[in-house]
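Give me structure tokens for this 303-residue protein.
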Amino acid sequence: MKNPCKSFRRSHHLLFALSIVFLLVLFLLAGGILYVTMARPDIGYGLRDSLFGRREPLALAEIRVEDTAMEPVPLAEIQEGKREGIRYQNSLWLVNTAHTLASDAELLLEEYKDTELLLDRSAAAGLQELLDQAQKATGDKVYLMSTYRTWEEQEEEYRNDPKLAAPAGASEHQTGLAIDLYVYQKAQREFITSKAGVWIQEHAHEYGFIIRYPFGKESVTGIAYEPWHIRYVGKPHAALMYANRWTLEEYVERLDPGRFYSAGGYAFTRQLPQDGALSVPADWENVTVSADNTGAYILTGEL
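Here you go.
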């Protein structure tokens, strides 16, 4: 006959041993997290934002346009600026290793504030407002580390640091839409340790910019988290991507060609040209058109 006291003692010892192992695992896990967040502040911020950062999702609703008057507008006229109320931009170009930039792509660049730095013209005004507000809110002055790069400059960047820089043709810096930022003595990973770095993570979308390579999305973008790398896409698109934690890849994929969507007082459609023209709804105002570098064009209008 088994001794119940001995069985109880064995169970008690086993439970005690399991408790010790559990506490040890918790201690090691907590120590590991503490070490990672101290050694890699970018990962620390990314984890905190992913776990505790609250964002209100913004619905991208499909709308019906059967009864809406459509005007076929020749794409050439849109690109040449010959249609009143329609602006052509490059703001929604998707550039990555799967969708490379053509060597003869037509860029829309301008000099930024007499600095000899070049930016896409649609990004310049929003960038200045973003940097001004970041300094006003935090006291940190934010500087531009890198803007537009020529094909040759990108090739050199890739040769010097292939782990960080993208190959020529796959870099957003060749569009003039991407900007690398820094605060004095806080660049790249350390940028997120500055007050302005955190503020920009949380407010860049209000000025039409996204964190192009967000935390936890490397499997989608192919690029690890870069809190210092912002990208202009336009206010309505940036708001959607920020609220729903979408990358540019995920956003473009959600816009099925030929369908129409609305969100936040704006309407969107992604189209493939038909007979060299795009169909523009007559009731849309202040329309912008951007190629997406996949063969389609994204139209955005105010409702």
